[in-house]
């Protein structure tokens, strides 16, 4: 497919003798298509060419040679060149490319041979999946798919919270009270009840805390009974999480959690000592980061225990050895920003500057209700993600019962729409912002929501089925697709790969989500303004081809976010 930016840059390069790649970075998309399809700011060349921007613009226009096949018209506005490309060339290129590549349209191989390690989700075992882990799971899952789409080898790591004193509490409580709970119905809920009860009772009975320490010490020492209990808790926790992961289309290649790195931390501590990076501070062993405007990074506490930073350094060393990663991405809340800055700086000081520079913390905001209050508990009870997803599905089923009671596969459609609404609500705005959780908003079929995009996709399917359309290139007259609304869609479809690559560069799935809203709204405008099933067969064929292409891009795009498309609603 023609790279229009590149072609424009090459034409300008012939006039200015400036490098094509440099010129290409200057080319912009005007905010209003009336101003052209591309804009070139000539003030970028003023210093090099030692001329005023309007003079540079006039000289380029006079000498560029408008061939009509790619560049059709150039207007000068101030120091800008506003460039109009040949719309028929654009339409033909885009529609041919989409019909040829189908669901691979927009993908690339820029990441071929490169590993991207993505650390996301990371719930604490012995508890059901809490809504607080929704954002990490959904953002990380989208990045996993986006990087794969661009040819990278994504490695999804679920760094489970599967170690620590909390398991001493669970195991001690289990031994004391297991006969009081029914483990035949819901094992993980019973485990949670024991844990909550233990935490409440130890406030009044400090001896329980000591008991928990004894149990955890036995686990650390490899006591057979405690290890077996821990393994059972880990197993039932993962089985419970898999139900949620299946609904969210989340995939992981490793479930190595905190426990996995227990025997790998001593080597990190020794390496830090050998490289004279450890210093004593108030009884703790730390790496001094004052020179980098950061507080010291604690490696061993004053109590002699390791800490999160120790484990993260051990995990980084392990991931370097296993994956030789091009990027290591940590999808963890904004409150851990300083922690990761410290860890990455310590890795650099340990002698791994190349790998430290490839590490990225991808922070995100909280999940809040429409009043801005953090969603974490409801009347003192934890909110579990599985319950939220089930509620979304049930709400969509009710909507279907009201609007389309005869719909086939109603439950499957409700699942795709309900879960998709939760995912899209999370990803539709910049991840650093708090996610507003409002049922009325996220299940709106007319707003900037997941259900709206799915509804538009179903409309494309309906049009194609009604006309029994099958793509046939030889039947297409590209000059018949010239309406402004149609061309605007084509211009958006042309940029699909650009938006996917931008989402990867910024680790920002909302870029894809917002793009899909634009495509859906653009198609809706076209549909409302022009008859797609037209009287003229030639016009109908090219409009249906465009409809088909919109469906391909919408489906591919939402799948990158972890959603699924229903064929009917």
Please provide a brief summary of the model:
The chain is built from 22 helices and 14 strands.
Word description of this protein:
This protein is α/β, with parallel strands linked by helices. Among the domains are: 4-85, Gyrase A, domain 2; 115-362, 3-Layer(aba) Sandwich (Rossmann fold). The chain has helices spanning 4-16, 20-26, 46-49, 53-63, 87-101, 134-149, 165-177, 187-201, 207-220, 224-248, 265-274, 308-323, 337-349, 353-356, 385-403, 410-427, 439-442, 450-466, 484-494, 496-505, 510-529, 537-561, and strands at residues 38-41, 71-77, 80-85, 115-119, 153-157, 278-281, 284-287, 297-300, 327-331, 359-362, 367-369, 377-378, 381-382, 435-437. The strands form five sheets. Strands 5-4-9-10 form a four-stranded parallel beta sheet, with helices on both faces. A three-stranded antiparallel beta sheet has the order 1-3-2. Strand 6 (278-281) and strand 7 form a beta hairpin. Helix 15 (385-403) crosses helix 16. The longest helix has 25 residues, at 224-248. The radius of gyration is 28 Å and the shape is flat. The model has no long low-confidence stretch (mean pLDDT 93).
């Amino acid at each position: 497919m023609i790279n229009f930016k590149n072609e424009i840059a090459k034409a300008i390069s012939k006039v200015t003798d400036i490098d094509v790649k440099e010129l290409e970075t200057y080319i912009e998309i005007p905010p209003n298509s009336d101003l052209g399809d591309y804009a070139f700011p000539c003030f970028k060349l003023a210093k090099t060419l030692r001329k005023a921007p309007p003079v540079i613009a006039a000289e380029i226009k006079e000498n560029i040679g408008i061939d009509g096949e790619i560049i059709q018209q150039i207007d000068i506005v101030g120091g800008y060149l506003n460039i109009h490309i040949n719309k028929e060339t654009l339409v033909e290129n885009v529609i041919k490319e989409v019909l040829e590549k189908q669901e691979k349209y927009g993908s690339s191989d820029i990441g071929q041979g490169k590993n991207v390690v993505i650390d996301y989700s990371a719930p604490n075992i012995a508890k059901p999946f809490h809504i607080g882990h929704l954002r990490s799971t959904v953002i990380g899952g989208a990045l996993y798919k986006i990087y794969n789409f661009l040819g990278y080898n994504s490695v999804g790591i679920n760094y489970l919270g599967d170690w620590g004193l909390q398991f001493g509490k669970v195991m001690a409580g289990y031994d004391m009270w297991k006969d009081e709970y029914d483990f035949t119905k819901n094992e993980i809920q019973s485990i949670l009840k024991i844990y909550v009860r233990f935490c409440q009772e130890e406030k009044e009975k400090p001896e329980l805390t000591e008991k928990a320490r004894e149990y955890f010490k036995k686990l650390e020492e490899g006591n057979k009974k405690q290890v077996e209990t821990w393994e059972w808790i880990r197993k039932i926790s993962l089985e419970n999480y898999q139900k949620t992961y299946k609904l969210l289309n989340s995939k992981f290649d490793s479930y190595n959690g905190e426990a996995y790195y227990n025997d790998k931390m001593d080597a990190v501590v020794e390496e830090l000592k050998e490289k004279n990076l450890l210093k004593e501070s108030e009884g703790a062993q730390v790496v001094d980061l004052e020179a980098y405007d950061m507080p010291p990074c604690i490696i061993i506490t004053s109590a002699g225990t390791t800490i999160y930073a120790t484990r993260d350094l051990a995990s980084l060393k392990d991931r370097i050895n296993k994956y030789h990663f091009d990027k290591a991405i940590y999808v963890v809340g904004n409150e851990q920003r300083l922690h990761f800055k410290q860890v990455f700086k310590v890795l650099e000081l340990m002698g791994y500057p190349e790998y430290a520079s490839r590490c990225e913390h991808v922070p995100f905001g909280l999940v809040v209700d429409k009043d801005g209050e953090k969603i974490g508990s409801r009347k003192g009870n934890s909110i579990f993600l599985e319950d939220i997803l089930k509620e979304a599905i049930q709400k969509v089923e009710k909507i279907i019962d009201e609007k389309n009671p005869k719909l086939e596969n109603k439950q499957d459609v409700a699942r795709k729409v309900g879960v998709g609404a939760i995912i899209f609500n999370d990803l539709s705005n910049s991840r650093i912002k708090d996610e507003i959780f409002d049922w009325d908003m996220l299940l709106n079929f007319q707003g900037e929501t997941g259900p709206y995009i799915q509804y538009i996709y179903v409309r494309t399917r309906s049009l194609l089925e009604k006309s029994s359309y099958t793509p046939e290139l030889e039947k297409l007259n590209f000059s018949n697709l010239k309406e402004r609304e149609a061309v605007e869609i084509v211009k958006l479809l042309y940029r699909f790969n650009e938006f996917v690559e931008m989402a990867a560069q910024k680790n920002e799935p909302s870029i894809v989500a917002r793009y899909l809203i634009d495509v859906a709204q653009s198609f809706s405008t076209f549909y409302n303004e022009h008859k797609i099933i037209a009287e003229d067969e030639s016009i109908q064929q090219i409009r249906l081809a465009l409809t088909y292409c919109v469906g391909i891009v919408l489906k591919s795009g939402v799948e990158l976010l972890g959603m699924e498309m229903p064929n009917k609603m």
